[in-house]
Design a protein that fits this description.
The chain is α+β, with helices and mostly antiparallel strands and 352 residues long. It has 2 domains: 8-160, PurM-like, N-terminal domain (60s Ribosomal Protein L30, Chain: A, 2-Layer Sandwich); 172-347, Alpha-Beta Complex (Phosphoribosyl-aminoimidazole Synthetase, Chain A, domain 2), CATH 3.90.650.10. Helices cover 34% and strands 22% of the residues. It has helices spanning 23-30, 76-92, 114-130, 181-189, 198-206, 210-219, 231-243, 258-265, 271-280, 292-298, 313-325, and strands at 41-43, 52-55, 61-69, 97-107, 135-142, 147-156, 172-175, 223-226, 246-250, 284-286, 307-311, 332-338, 344-347. The strands form 2 sheets. It has a 7-stranded mixed sheet, sandwiched between helices. A 6-stranded mixed sheet has the order 1-2-3-6-4-5, with helices on one face. It binds cobalt (II) ion (2 copies). Residues 50, 90, 93, 225-226, 228 line the site of one cobalt (II) ion (CO).
């Protein structure tokens, strides 16, 4: 009898948000579907936003979102916690407050003992209770790979919705978590995490965007999203496209996990990050001194990444101070919004 610990990532062909379909894939298909005409749908599928918003009354709207994926880490409890934090994040990214959630489960019960599923569900339940909600039900099917995630319902006042389409020239970009999570989890899955960075990555991915979201909503922001499978530049592109503005990102100001820099230099990165980089080619201009490795880091597919806030310039300093004071110490200004048709410019040296 083998006593080898179960490695969940070995059961997943693709891990976490890198398993997401590439950004262009769904957008082209959505055009084939009937247009949403319900006037109570305040945010639907047209602007590639984080979550849908449905108006119940002038005072109250529902925030609706779901996210699920194959194991991003080997430990079942961590997998459940990260998947829950990731799914909840899209509610925070709309400026909303989660109310409750349902779990979505695919489980290979022939290959894995039921204790593994218990641990996944426990990790998610603990994370949900940290967010102040309960997971009240769900649905489980047999599948070849483990799959876990949540469908989350939240609430928001309809006039407080932080959609992707209100970024304005002069606004400042603030990112609340470091990037490079896809590269580090890929290294760990392939036994190439020589720096032992996976524990840091697990801590970052398990961190709820709850506090960051509360501080940003209170501080006042024009647009808000979270950085997940399409990478920092992919999610920023959704904002500049929806808002019809350009963005400038200063690569030397972006918080990047050090191990991810080292691994990408060794050629370690997920296929999803490469796909993001290719997809973004038409929208992003990189300055000549921005290396291919830096480009891949900025496009790296994140799981449960940070919030990306587009903040009026006169509020940025106070917001950053408030984030740091609440323990969001990685929060950093990474660029700005300028007038333009919806492109991103990446350079170095915003401030010297
Ligand atoms: Co999102
Ligand atoms: Co999402």
């Amino acid at each position: 009898m083998s006593t080898e610990p179960i490695r969940l990532t070995k059961l997943a062909k693709r891990a976490g948000c890198a398993a997401k379909q590439p950004p262009g894939y769904l957008l082209s298909l959505l055009g084939e579907l009937p247009k949403i005409t319900d006037p109570n749908v305040l945010v639907g599928n047209a602007t590639a936003d984080d979550a849908a918003v449905y108006k119940l009354s002038d005072e109250l709207g529902l925030v609706l979102t779901t996210d699920f994926f194959t194991p991003i880490v080997d430990d079942a409890y961590d997998f459940g916690a990260i998947a829950a934090a990731n799914a909840l994040s899209d509610v925070y990214a709309m400026g909303g407050t989660p109310l409750t959630a349902l779990s979505i489960v695919g489980f290979p019960d022939a290959n894995l003992p039921p204790e593994v599923l218990v641990q996944i569900l426990k990790g998610a339940a603990d994370k949900a209770s940290e967010a102040g909600i309960a997971i009240v039900g769900g649905h489980t099917i047999k599948s070849e790979e483990p799959i876990f995630g949540l469908a989350v319902v939240g609430k928001i006042a309809p006039d407080q919705v932080l959609s992707n389409d209100k970024a304005q020239p002069g606004d400042v970009l603030i990112l609340t978590k470091p990037i490079g999570l896809g590269i580090i989890t890929t290294a760990a899955k392939n036994n190439e995490d020589s720096l032992g960075a996976i524990s840091t990555a697990i801590r970052v991915m398990s961190t709820l965007n709850r506090v960051a979201g509360e501080v940003i909503v209170r501080g006042g922001t024009h647009a808000l999203t979270d950085v997940t499978g399409f990478g920092l530049l992919g999610h920023l592109r959704n904002i500049v496209a929806a808002s019809r503005v350009n963005a400038r990102v200063f690569v030397d100001q972006v918080p990047i996990l050090d191990a991810a820099r080292q691994y990408v230099a060794r050629g370690i990165y997920p296929g999803g990050s490469n796909a993001n980089h290719r997809f973004l080619h038409d929208w992003v201009t990189y300055a000549a001194d921005v290396t291919k490795e830096e480009q891949l880091l900025l496009c790296d597919a994140q799981t449960s990444g940070g919030l990306l806030a587009v903040v009026p310039p006169d509020r940025a300093a106070a917001l950053l101070t408030a984030l740091h004071a609440r323990g969001i110490t990685d929060a950093t200004v990474i660029g700005e919004i300028v007038a333009g048709p919806g492109r991103i410019e990446v350079a170095r040296g915003g401030k010297s």
